[in-house]
Amino acid sequence: MEANASPYIEEAAHDGYGSEYDEDGHPKRKGTWITASAHILTAVIGSGVLSLTWAIAQLGWIAGPVVLMLFSFITLYTSFLLTDCYKSPHPLHGTRNRTYRTMVKNILGGSQYHYCGLAQYINQIGAGIGYTITASISMVAVKRSNCYHKNGHEAACHVTNYPYMLIFAIIEIILSQIPDLHELSLLSALAAVMSFGYASIGIGLSIAKVAGESHARTSITGVTIGVDVTSSQKLWNTFTALGNIAFAYNFSSVIVEIQDTLKSSKPENREMKVAATTSVAITTFFYLLCGIVGYAAFGNDAPGNFLTGFGFYEPFWLVDIGNIFIAVHLVGAYQVFSQPVFSLVENWAKERWPQSSFMAKEHHIKIPLVGTLRMNFLRLIWRTVYVIFSAVIAVIFPFFNSILGLLGALVFWPLTVHFPTQMYLVQAKVPKFSMIWLLLKLLSGFCLLVSFVAAAGSIEGIVKELKVYQPFKS
């Protein structure tokens, strides 16, 4: 299948809607493919990159990179299909679909719309929970590395994650008052820089580990049955690894909202394809380096979070910087994934009670050296409650690899494959049983199977970890 297969001719869009508003009455969009790329990189290079070394270790030298590349191609192709559905019934001259759910409602309608909403919001809520867990792990790693550096490697530097989950939640409560995704460009750019920073540090430490020590034990098929794991553990870990890799490419649920930030002086679908191609190419390059070099460094004993696997010793400062970068990046990524959830409830409340000043009135607060902050009582209360909820769930289920695998399994098929292919088939009026129709149906069926087995492996992992989990212990 050609990634840019489309019956539509991409012609230049005419931008003649005035200087302040676009044709839909929305304040004029100012985004470019560069800002869209930053949003995508912020969303996609998150906690998922940290589990790739472990995932490659479960799959081995051949299957690991092949699966990772396969997921990257699938994600890129289906994102192209989504970009052509941003406007309907024609990708250049149709009506804007400003959110993923609106797109599904206008093109597929009916029960598909409700199913999409369920999948999308499970994904976005789950991402916030996963990011809370991961950020706290990185904060704890900084605390422990400094403890070992100060007190020696034999010191009992046990640190609990829970206070750091609270710190992360407080930061997100403050940042969640940023009204919408259109005002997050600077935060996304900072988060994208952080993601490159910690991925590069992890790659550098892995290379140093490979060069400075005897080679770790690796194999063509990954962890060895009878040596590292039992046959059942190998099977379940392989399934979980598929979910971890799927989660690592988890940005389909916000791609429509990101496309809605692009200015209309150029065709949005063309600009978004450039942004998606750039972002997925950069992401895959870093993922392959992290996974392959990390596996070479750790071998079949690869840790779940490869940046905390270098021990908490020297060079402690470099490991600290890497983990600080992770925490800063996830602060931004949390907002990118949470904004659609915030908007869902707020828009519903404003439509339900349009005359309520509590719901709709904006209060402008001047903050020295920062500027004017728009404050709304509904936004303040609802978003605070939401952040607290995600933090509480993270405290209850702090299982890194299994949670990431389950999230990836639950949302990969519906959001990354099913809805994009179905909407494309409907909007492009692809004839049933044509070659393109058959290939897209085969792709969807294959990815559904992958999601099932990944979910099974992750659930098995969560059940196993719950048996030995002791809450509020370090």
Automatic annotation (TrEMBL):
Compartment(s): Cell membrane; Endomembrane system
Amino acid transporter transmembrane domain segment(s): 29-462
InterPro entries in the cross-refs: AA_transpt_TM (IPR013057)
Keywords: Amino-acid transport, Auxin signaling pathway, Cell membrane, Membrane, Symport, Transmembrane, Transmembrane helix, Transport
Stretches that traverse the bilayer: 33-56, 62-82, 159-178, 184-208, 274-296, 316-337, 384-415, 435-457
Membrane topology classification: Multi-pass membrane protein
Function: Carrier protein involved in proton-driven auxin influx. Mediates the formation of auxin gradient from developing leaves (site of auxin biosynthesis) to tips by contributing to the loading of auxin in vascular tissues and facilitating acropetal (base to tip) auxin transport within inner tissues of the root apex, and basipetal (tip to base) auxin transport within outer tissues of the root apex. May be involved in lateral roots and nodules formation.
Family from the record: Belongs to the amino acid/polyamine transporter 2 family. Amino acid/auxin permease (AAAP) (TC 2.A.18.1) subfamily.
Name recorded for this polypeptide: Amino acid permease 6
Organism from which the protein derives: Stylosanthes scabra
Classification lineage: Eukaryota, Viridiplantae, Streptophyta, Embryophyta, Tracheophyta
Recorded name of the encoding gene: AAP6_1
